[in-house]
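[Discussion] Sanity-checking designs against the backbone

I'm trying to build intuition for which residues belong where. Below is a structure token string of 139 positions. I'd appreciate it if someone posts a full sequence so I can compare it with mine line by line.
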């Protein structure tokens, strides 16, 4: 059974942000993703991007994104999370994977959060809201 194909859509914002933030991990796609890998300790520093909700209408998507920075020390994780926040807020407009982010705001600045093995991994998380428009999908 065939399914209708929409003419417009929003795209995967979490994956777009993994492309957008890749320069913060030396453009290494193995050090950024939408989930923490099983071998996280071997990929530090690592950035994880997850969408946690946000409203959508016929024109705009306004997702809430969680950006976690994992590193082996506070001295690496905290400044990296801060540089990401500052770059997102002060160096736009940002574009990735065909999405143009009209607005990015930081709802919760980077803060240290628990992680399963705090003896070897430090985690700093921040929450962002961005707004981008629907775009014509290619068939």
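Best answer:
Here's mine. Compare freely.
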């Amino acid at each position: 059974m065939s399914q209708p194909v929409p003419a417009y859509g929003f795209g995967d914002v979490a994956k777009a942000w993994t492309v957008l933030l890749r320069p913060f991990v030396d453009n290494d796609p193995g050090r950024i993703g939408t989930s923490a890998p099983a071998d996280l300790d071997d990929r530090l520093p690592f950035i994880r991007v997850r969408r946690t909700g946000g409203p959508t209408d016929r024109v705009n998507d306004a997702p809430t994104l969680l950006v976690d920075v994992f590193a082996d020390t506070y001295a690496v994780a905290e400044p990296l999370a801060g540089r990401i926040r500052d770059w997102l807020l002060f160096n736009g407009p940002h574009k990735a994977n065909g999405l143009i982010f009209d607005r990015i705001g930081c709802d919760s600045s980077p803060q240290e959060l628990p992680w399963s093995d705090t003896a070897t991994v430090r985690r700093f998380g921040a929450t962002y809201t961005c707004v981008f428009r629907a775009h014509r999908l290619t068939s």
